[in-house]
Amino acid sequence: MARNIRIREPFARPVSRIQIVLIFLVVMAIAFGLGTMSMNLPFLEDLVASEVSDKNKVIRSLEKSNDRLKNEVALAKRNAEAESVALKELKSMMREKDAELLQLTQELQFYRTLYSPDADNKPVQVRALQLHAGDTAGQFAYRLVLTGVPRKREKISGVIGLSVTGEQQGVAKELVLAVVRGARKDEAPRFSFRYFQEISGSLSLPEDFAPSEVQVELLRDGRKSKPIVASYSWGEVYERDELHTVRSEE
């Protein structure tokens, strides 16, 4: 009689209902989690996009602030440069005004001396003489101020003589630069004024000539009297600063 023989797996065990239920629950949990994640993906994308947009706004705001600060710094630099230029111009103008004020003060002092009660009442006289070095050796510029008290407001006119005495190579010598009489009279400078006049000119001396004295002669037109003579030592009238001029009053 034949027998039915069953072969069992040595480790195979029957699956219980509890195990099936647990597996089902795990599968459901995984499915639920995946579903939840898929549902939240649009929200996460919106959240990330919002954060990126906010950061872009902050960046743009910072860039605008940076540009504004750059413009303010550039404007401040331009203002500082403009103020520096204005300050330099102001200092230059103040120096010019100071020099002008000094010259006006000197002119005022001159006028006070000119019309002071102690002033001589001669028809014509030498009030001031100044000499300054020229651009080349032996060249000198002179400034001569003449005053006078005219009669009946008539002009005083005449000719000016000029001579310089000194030494040349150890020998005393007089250089006559302009004469009031003789053939060279027409070459001499002239004066014509009512109250005072400033006369400017130049003279040339030999380079090896050492001047010691300057003599000025004034001879009025139509007069046979002797010329008025004024003598000055060279050191008294020679000045190294620039000439200051005054206006002539006729």
Describe the overall structure.
This protein folds into two domains: 18-119; 121-237, C2 domain (Immunoglobulin-like), CATH 2.60.40. With 250 residues, the chain is of the alpha+beta class. Strands 3, 4, 5, 7 and 8 form a five-stranded antiparallel β-sheet that branches. It has a three-stranded antiparallel β-sheet with strand order 1-2-6, with no helix packed on it. The protein has two helices and eight strands; from the N terminus they run αββββββββα. The protein is rod-shaped and about 165 Å long. A hairpin with a 5-residue loop joins β1 and β2.
Short description:
With 250 residues, the protein is α+β, with helices and mostly antiparallel strands. It has 2 helices and 8 strands, in the order H-E-E-E-E-E-E-E-E-H. Strands 3, 4, 5, 7 and 8 form a 5-stranded antiparallel β-sheet that branches. Strands 1-2-6 form a 3-stranded antiparallel β-sheet, with no helix packed on it.
Number of domain units = 2
Number of strands: 8
Distance between the termini: 175 Å
Helix count, DSSP H or I runs of 4 or more residues: 2
Largest sheet: 5 strands, antiparallel
The helix fraction, in percent, is: 40-55%
Helix-strand makeup class: alpha+beta
CATH topology of the largest domain: Immunoglobulin-like
The CATH superfamily of the largest domain appears as: C2 domain
Strand content: 25-35%
SSE ordering = HEEEEEEEEH
| Annotated CATH architecture of the largest domain | Sandwich
* Overall pLDDT confidence: 77
Low-confidence region ranges:
242-250
CATH class of the largest domain: Mainly Beta
How would you sum up the global shape? Answer: rod-shaped
Q: Rounded to an integer, what's the Rg over CA atoms? A: 55 Å
